[in-house]
Amino acid sequence: MTQLALLKDGKLVSGFKRVAIGVRFTLPDGRLVMGAGDGWQMDGYALKVVRTPTVPSGKRLTKAIKMISGKPTYVLEDIPAIPRRTIGDFREFMDLFTPGEQLAIAAASQQSPQIKLWYDRAMGGDVPLDHPDTIAGVGALVTANLITQEAHDAVLSADYNAGKTTRVDN
Questions:
Q1: The dihedral sign for the CA sequence 118, 119, 120, 121
Q2: How far apart are CA 84 and CA 7, in angstroms?
Q3: Are the C-beta atoms of residues 155 and 142 closer than 8 Å to each other?
Q4: Residue 5 in contact with residue 65, Cβ under 8 Å?
């Protein structure tokens, strides 16, 4: 729906709610105006269509209006970045490894008491990627040649919001 902004002497009237074309509205001085329309003018007041700019990637429209090149225009703002999620459950954690890495870790947990202990503790709850136990455990997987240093770095820098790994087994 096309919206109109009220201007006084070429400046936006603050606190004025936008109106639709053809609607009656009240000026700040209390006078009633019938049939709002683009280009309406009276005693320094004017109505102008609020322009909707092209919205580039990473931006969104707000309800705020400002004058741009002499025309009332909706304001754009940055879309806030979603913060990296570093705490996930065990299933999400294991999804950060490739299927081959997952099998190697599960098999090693049956052979190595240290890996079994780490694996069982990880299964017990959330797995924060920045926790010293997680960092040490993923490091032990590199030492045991179960994953590469590249996989280690990818797992510990992952974002649980991204879901399963896109890395593939070699």
A1: positive
A2: 43
A3: no
A4: yes
Tell me the two tokens of residue 136. 């040490």
As a whole number of angstroms, the distance between CA 126 and CA 165 comes to: 18
Give me the helix-helix angle, 132-143 and 149-156, nearest 10°: 160
167 versus 117: the higher-pLDDT residue is: 117
Determine if residue 56 is left, alpha or beta; phi over 0 gives left, psi from -120 to 50 gives alpha, anything else beta.
beta
In DSSP notation, 68-84 reads ETTEEEEEEEEPPPPPP
Q: What is the pTM of this model?
A: 0.58
Q: Which residue has the tokens 């136990």?
A: 133
Render pLDDT for 86-109 as a digit per residue (tens, 0 to 9): 999 999 999 999 999 999 999 999
- Residue where the block lists tokens 């709850």: 125
Q: Cβ atoms within 10 A of the Cβ of 101, count?
A: 20
The DSSP output letter for 51 is: B
